[in-house]
Amino acid sequence: MTSTPPGNSEKPDNSVSGLRHRLFYGRDPGPLLGPWLACGILAIVSYIFERLMPAFHDVIGPFYWLLLIIVSIATWRWARARAGGRGADRRHKDRRKADRKAKSKADRKTRG
């Protein structure tokens, strides 16, 4: 893996935006950081609460799993929503099909 972006073979892009582009493949990490930070803060608060009140140890355990599930779903949705594959193509395909149907109906009305 090279440190230079494609098309720029002169010198590597060591700026913050260039590093972010390489790390996240050009995706904006903002929507991902919100759920991660919120779940991290809740995990820290619940850990402190558990240390202060050990009787709640059995209650806090499933809460950690819930936070892990929330972070996993948020990460999966972030990665899938920005994947340029099938989803966007499917929407355009449906739109083209709908446009063809509307055009064929208009053609039939003008002919007959």
Could you characterize what this model shows?
The protein is mainly α. It has a domain at 28-82. The chain is built from 4 helices and no strands. The protein has helices spanning 16-24, 30-52, 57-81, 86-111. Helix 2 runs antiparallel to helix 3. The longest helix is centred in the last third of the chain and has 26 residues, at 86-111. The radius of gyration is 25 Å and the shape is elongated. The model has no long low-confidence stretch (mean pLDDT 76).
Query: Which stretches of 5+ consecutive residues score pLDDT under 50?
Result: none
Task: Give the integer mean of the pLDDT values.
Answer: 76
User: What global shape is seen?
Assistant: elongated
Q: Considering DSSP H and I runs of 4 or more, what fraction of the residues is helical?
A: over 70%
Order of helices and strands: HHHH
Alpha-carbon Rg, integer: 25 Å
The number of E-state strands comes to 0
**What class, by secondary structure content?**
mainly alpha
Strand content: under 5%
- Discrete helix count: 4
Distance N to C terminus? 62 Å
The major pleated sheet works out as: none
Write a concise synopsis of the structure shown.
The protein is mostly helical.
